[in-house]
């Protein structure tokens, strides 16, 4: 998408994920009658389910009855990437136009009642409290289960050093998560030195933009919604096309 605007983009993996509590996750998925629906705010939560379904017996149980039973209940998702993974396991996503946790919480609150059964929320260890807090304030029950942990990618420092030594100071740096800011920023500051003010920093969404501002970075653009198209359009506005 960035290439269509004449930009040359280099992707540097920032995060590694370790999946945990998978037996507990499948145990809960085996009892749809106990829940009012599912909530997904990250593609990783779906990856955890897909790992569970690699086991033949679990996949068989899912295809035979569990998928159908869960499909009588909502599967709330925060964006299109997560929605497409929900569809891959055979469920029908709702709320995918939300784009962030705040808006998804509003969407859920408009559809659920305090008398509903708890929503099952497979999530990461670093999840923000925005969605759980908003639902709690409305009395909508939510059961969180941590199914993955986020750590710094083992090759991150080396990859950043290689980029700067081979390509110099980037015209723009895009962050896709608060964790990315946390793990990357000090390396980028060190490698950029006095030239850091020449870099246009962009964010995939408002949550990441807040983390960047809290770390003292001036955010030049935030994608209107977390899609490649909106991100590319935002960078194009922030970055006149010259030597990029």
UniProtKB/TrEMBL annotation:
Q: Which GO terms describe its molecular function?
A: uroporphyrinogen-III synthase activity
Give an example GO biological process.
Answer: uroporphyrinogen III biosynthetic process
Question: Keywords on this record?
Answer: Heme biosynthesis, Lyase, Porphyrin biosynthesis
Instruction: Specify whether Metal-binding is a keyword of the entry.
Output: no
Q: Which residues form the Tetrapyrrole biosynthesis uroporphyrinogen III synthase domain?
A: 5-232
Pathway participation:
Porphyrin-containing compound metabolism; protoporphyrin-IX biosynthesis; coproporphyrinogen-III from 5-aminolevulinate: step 3/4
Q: Write down the EC number.
A: 4.2.1.75
Protein origin, superkingdom: Eukaryota
Which reaction(s) does its UniProt entry say it catalyses? Answer: hydroxymethylbilane = uroporphyrinogen III + H2O
What is any Pfam family matched here?
Answer: HEM4
Any single GO CC term annotated in Swiss-Prot or TrEMBL for this entry: cytosol
Family named by the database record: Belongs to the uroporphyrinogen-III synthase family.
Function as written in the Swiss-Prot or TrEMBL entry: Catalyzes cyclization of the linear tetrapyrrole, hydroxymethylbilane, to the macrocyclic uroporphyrinogen III, the branch point for the various sub-pathways leading to the wide diversity of porphyrins. Porphyrins act as cofactors for a multitude of enzymes that perform a variety of processes within the cell such as methionine synthesis (vitamin B12) or oxygen transport (heme).
Q: What is this protein called?
A: Uroporphyrinogen-III synthase
Q: Which organism is it from?
A: Glareola pratincola (Collared pratincole)
């Amino acid at each position: 998408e960035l290439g269509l605007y004449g930009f040359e983009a280099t992707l540097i993996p920032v995060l590694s994920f370790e999946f945990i509590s998978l037996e507990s996750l499948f145990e809960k998925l085996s009892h749809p009658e106990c829940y009012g629906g599912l909530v997904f705010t990250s593609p990783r939560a779906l990856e955890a389910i897909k790992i569970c379904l690699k086991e033949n017996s679990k996949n068989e149980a899912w295809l035979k009855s569990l998928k159908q039973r869960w499909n009588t209940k909502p599967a709330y998702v925060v964006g299109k990437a997560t929605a497409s993974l929900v569809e891959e396991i055979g469920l029908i996503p709702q709320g995918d136009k939300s784009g962030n946790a705040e808006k998804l919480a509003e969407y859920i609150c408009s559809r659920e009642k305090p008398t509903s059964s708890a929503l099952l929320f497979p999530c990461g260890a670093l999840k923000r409290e925005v969605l759980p807090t908003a639902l709690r304030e409305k009395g909508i029950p939510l059961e969180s289960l941590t199914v993955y942990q986020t750590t710094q990618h083992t090759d991150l420092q080396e990859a950043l050093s290689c980029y700067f030594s081979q390509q110099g100071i980037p015209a723009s740096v895009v962050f896709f998560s608060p964790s990315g800011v946390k793990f990357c920023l000090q390396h980028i500051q060190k490698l950029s030195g006095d030239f850091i003010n020449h870099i246009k920093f962009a964010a995939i969404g408002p949550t990441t933009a807040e983390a960047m501002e809290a770390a003292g970075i001036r955010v030049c653009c935030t994608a209107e919604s977390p899609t490649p198209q909106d991100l590319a359009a935002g960078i194009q506005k922030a970055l006149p096309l010259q030597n990029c």
